[in-house]
Amino acid sequence: MTKTILHIDASARRTGSATRDLSDRVVRHLKAGRIIRRDLASPLPLITEDWIGANFTPADQRDVVQQDVLSLSDELVSELRKADTIVIGLPIYNFSVPAAFKAWIDLVARAGLTFAYSEEGPKGLLEGKRAILAVASGGTAVGSEIDFATTYARHVLGFIGIHDVEVIAADRMALDPEATLSKAQKAVTELAA
Prior knowledge:
Elements: E1 4-9, H1 18-30, E2 34-39, H2 49-55, H3 64-82, E3 85-91, H4 99-108, E4 115-118, E5 121-124, E6 130-136, H5 148-159, E7 164-170, H6 177-189
Parallel strand pairs: 1-2, 1-3, 3-6, 6-7
Antiparallel strand pairs: 4-5
Helix pairs in contact: 1-6, 2-3
């Protein structure tokens, strides 16, 4: 049994979403002791000049306003730290990730908290975690040269230290949705808990 799952849904669709269905199935299959839920259909703010200024101010020198500006980002980082497994329902929009997922990445990729710079380059600080991407697309084949979503998600998760990344794909659903979903649902049942 997985201890704690961070369950993130990035689909703008609250109903009828293949990625929401798949990510729910993954979470149920893993039987977590605790589930932290983050629905990105409730939009996250984009980073701003004030956010950047606060982020690059040393923590012990931040004023109350800067602390407030970073409070949501701090909460999102805390959710990642608490999780053993991160399950992400990730639709492919226009060959890439939804803007809501990119906003989440911008808020959690923070030097000193989720990665650090070293002589050898950046090093992720969230090692020892597992991520499962429940991906769906209308016409983009996962892993193809036009799939910028899963390659980006794998890269950025690795950047913050999460290298154990699995993909459950319900791709090219516009061609044969029933067969595609059936294959993806079978892959969920074969996931190692």
